[in-house]
Amino acid sequence: MKAALLETEGRIAIVEAERPSIGPDDVLIRVAYAGVCGSDLHSFEGSHPFRKPPVILGHELSGTVVERGERVESLAIGDPVTVMPYIHCGRCAMCRRGRTNICLNKIVPGIKGWAGTFAEYFRAPAAVTYKLGERTSLREGALAEPLAVAVHSVAQGRVGQGDRVLILGAGTIGLLTGIAARQAGASAVAITDLYEYNLSVGCTLGFDAAYRADQQDLVQRIRADYAEGFDVLFLTSGAAVTVTQSLELAQRTARIVATAIFPRPVTLDIGPITQGELELIGTSIYTDLDFRRALLWLDEHVHPFERLIDHELPLDAAQGALEMLAGRTEDAIKVLLRP
Hints:
Quinone Oxidoreductase, Chain A, domain 1, 11 helices, about 25% strand, 2 domains, single chain, seven-stranded mixed beta sheet, Rossmann fold, alpha/beta, globular, six-stranded parallel beta sheet
């Protein structure tokens, strides 16, 4: 099969790889769409904490079941599906607490021999393979994984009715987090980003305010509009400056949720956290419940999710897609590859 292999930092080669073989509890999926995630970009740039070359990148996908193992009964050949891309052990302390997303022995695509989704075929355990709803297209289904990240982040932040929410970084995850916050009852959602294009997409999604992140007086401008500060703030860009901004814009007792991968250590002033009894909360991927909720929202078309998809490219263009995202040579939020 054809696959996009990250050979070395910054270099992807289109190679002929062996088609995955499946076990009795697995399915083989012909990939229709593979989403390019920020974590793929981190791997491409050499800053991902554990996904290193040589590796077939990708973990977001939609596709069709073409083979199933002998013990698989929940899925049929031809089913349109997506995958919750991690395998938990079920035995460690985190799994015993139901925190499977932070399993101590978790396996994800790109490590321990599990090849990623930038390929014509992808193997997955049937237990983490989900049939798409009847009203969900394969194109929309490719958004299930990043939407589940947003669903889990908002749950971790305990967003509730009437909360004022600020999202620092309006990429795919940031914009989907805004949608999830609205679904949870937020009365106001404001976003920041470096790029006018991303901010404009946020406005089309109905968010209340959008601010250029590179304004020198950014904090003052936001304070002028939201004098009381925010109840929940999401760090979704990975830029160190957002940590300080969140502390300055949080009202007392606010919750700050760290969603992004920060490529370098961040200096943190603990004083505002102590004085304002703030909460700094980590969030890591999603649980089965989050993933199922994301699939339900996609099928109910509660928001125009496809508005986030602005590029569809053949698998052969994987190098160019990652270079485009790394250098921001074109406006882009969600790029899909078509193996």
